[in-house]
Amino acid sequence: MSELLRLITLQDPNTRVVLLGTAALGVAAGLVGSFAVLRRRALIGDAVAHAALPGLCVAYFVVGDRSFPAFLAGALAAGVLAAAFVAVVKARTRIKEDAAIAIAIGGFFGLGIVLSRIIQNQPTGNRAGLDSFIFGKAASMVGSDATFIFAVALTITLVVALLYKELKLTVFDRDFAVAQGWPALAIDLALMTLICVCTVAGLPAVGVVLVVALLVIPAVAARFWTNRLPTMLLLAALFGGASGLLGTVLSATLPAPAGVLSRGWPTGPLVVLCASALFLVSLLAAPKRGLLADLVRRVRLRRRIAIQNLLRDAYEHLEPRGDFGAAFRAADLGAGPAHHDEPRRPFERAEALGLIQSAAGEYRLTGQGQAAAARTVRAHRLWELYLIHHADIAPDHVDRDADRLEHVLPPEVLAELEARLEGQVPPGVPASPHALRGSALS
Amino acid sequence: MTNVMPSQSNAAPLPPDTAGGISVEVHDLTVAYDRKPVLWDVDLALPTAKLIAIVGPNGAGKSTLLKAVLGLVPIASGWVSVFGSPLKAARRRVGYVPQRETVDWDFPVDALDVVLMGRYGRLGWFRRPSRADREAARHALDRVGMADLAHRQISQLSGGQQQRVFLARALAQDADLYFMDEPFAGVDAATERAIVVVLQDLRSKGRTVVAVHHDLQTVPEYFDHVALLNMRLVAAGPVASTFTRENLQKTYGGRLTLLDEAAEAVRRGSPG
């Protein structure tokens, strides 16, 4: 616990630098990832990451020792090669992009594993620390490594800020950008370069297997909370930074799993788990796009439909008498498709809304309820008339079709319906174009 | 064909060309996808200050013609000039309305953001839109009747409203020549009326509109000139003399019901 405190309060200078490095990396990954996800380039990041492993190995063969900048240069070269492979295969053959990416991931990673085994079997092989690149191990970074990553992340952030307008335009509408004279290919390549650099910079902390998650997850989580690109970028940066920070702290402070060979927790999975937790919260709880909000909307719509059906049935029941203030009983309205499960609830809700009043087992439409009922019936019958006159649907078939549409009619569509039916409907509630359930029975 | 306008390259709004000039000239244009030609030897010279429809059956290369003129698809042979100069020199004078399906409407931007993109061309690298650019974008939205939806996320707009946003973005470009790819496709009646008003307004200001159009019935009503295309250019010229039953037959082959509809449209449209 004292170590956790030491870490969080940033007392140890090396830890401080490492934490700053991973946090800055998370921020950069969130920014670049947002554009990558919107451009549907997320999986390219995965190919780049997996291709980095053979790049690291080759760099080790060339330099002969652990050299952080050389490793990253090797990884970047191999990553760019993989991205180019995907682009060329996609452009020149009939192979689709997803298959090309799978080939790149498998081929490069397989080669990387073979090469890394050769290195690890050498007497000096462990010095390479290649293991920590596969799953990420922030603790194995030294201060200068972290400073380097921090500088790279900062550069990426600045480039994204500078190219914000150009990236936004090209990612949203490439053809329009070209028609305006922008070099869309160059801007696209700039984005690819950002993805490559960001991925490679993430390797020491998150590892080749999981680094793509740091690009994708914060960006997707951020999208749930906003419809504005600047806010999305800000949130993605925040989520990415927080995940990087938290994951690194956890991997350094959690008690390692028991066992003689235990080497502590790899950082990558913990960083990605932090990001995934943020994603799950966003998926469920985001105010408009989240699943809970969606559920609430559905329930509300169902309730509104139940109440509207109740009002319509009451209106049509009372229509032959010409007295919409008259009393009616629940049984009068029949048990048509309108009132499925829990038949009493719509009555209770309508009463709570002041649309109907109950007394001694009977109900009456209030003034407000009569107006709402007339509106509902009018919308329903306009739809029916429209379907009969303009879609050639038989009068005895339109009831249910209209039923599905009328509850979700926005006012402008209603206005257009009226315009189309001009001269065919009088103002107010038109007569039903088919026999009504109630009147058919009586 | 030799009525070539001097090339102008300054970024300020330019005076529209006066009547009689040539807006677009296409010479011996051939375009191929995967070595399969979609446009063959097209020669075309379009006037200025007119509303021009490009008409033809599915797969006739209508969109491809627009894209080739705009430099969006590689040209196999031939050349294109805009206001008498290569497209590169005239980019600032050209506006574009792509087909609606070409973008992801779930993109996190609102209507005003999209319209503002019409100003990016004149901004150049790294510069952010100014207050004046925002004003211009708002004004463009107003012209298509969408001022009150400026801050609605674009996925929340109806298809017709999305089409109007694209039109407003082109208006914000303040161009002399507009290319529109099926601007009337799948729009509601209100949007169709709004677009027609904008097109007529553009023409009255001396601007030229070249639009891919799929509805033969409305060609005589909406457009002054027409280019009939079916991989090759069948005919081009004023609607009254070019949009004839004979030319349509050449363009569409034997699809007679369609032709009868069009013929009726020709009859109705000719006096007005």
Question: How does this structure look, described?
Answer:
The complex is a heterodimer of chains A (442) and B (272). Helix content of chain A is 70%, strand content 2%. Chain A has 19 helices and two strands. Chain A has helices spanning 2-8, 13-38, 42-63, 68-92, 97-120, 131-135, 143-162, 164-172, 174-179, 184-206, 211-223, 229-253, 267-285, 291-318, 345-352, 367-390, 398-406, 411-420, 437-441, and strands at 356-359, 362-365. In chain A, strands 1-2 form a two-stranded antiparallel sheet. Chain A starts with a helix and ends with a helix. Mean pLDDT of chain A is 85; it is low at 438-442. Chain B is built from eleven helices and ten strands. Chain B has helices at 62-69, 87-90, 111-116, 120-123, 131-143, 159-172, 189-204, 219-222, 239-242, 245-252, 256-269, and strands at 22-33, 36-47, 51-55, 77-82, 85-86, 94-97, 177-181, 208-212, 225-230, 232-238. In chain B, the strands form two sheets. Chain B has a six-stranded mixed β-sheet, with helices on both faces. In chain B, strands 2-1-4-5 form a four-stranded antiparallel β-sheet. In chain B, helix 10 (245-252) packs antiparallel against helix 11 (256-269). Chain A binds chain B through residues 38, 162-163, 165-166, 168-169, 171-173, 175-182, 223, 226-229, 231-232, 412, 416, 419-420, and chain B through 67, 70-72, 88, 91-92, 94, 96, 98, 102-104, 107-110, 113-114, 117, 120-121, 123, 125-129, 153, 169, 173, 179, 188-190.
Structural class of chain A: mainly alpha
pLDDT < 50 stretches of chain B: 1-19
Helix and strand run of chain B? EEEHEEHEHHHHEHEHEEHHH
Strand order of the largest sheet of chain A: 1-2
Number of helices of chain B: 11
- Mean pLDDT of chain B equals 88
Q: Name the strands of the widest sheet of chain B in spatial order.
A: 6-7-8-3-9-10
Helix content of chain B: 25-40%
The protein's oligomeric status is heterodimer
Main sheet properties of chain B: 6 strands, mixed
Shape by Cα distribution of chain B? globular
Could you report the average pLDDT of chain A, rounded to the nearest whole number?
A: 85
Instruction: List the secondary-structure elements of chain A in sequence, H or E.
Output: HHHHHHHHHHHHHHHEEHHHH
User: Into which percentage range does the β-strand content of chain A fall?
Assistant: under 5%
| Straight-line N-to-C gap of chain A | 80 Å
List low-confidence stretches of chain A.
438-442
Gap between N and C termini of chain B, in Å? 29 Å
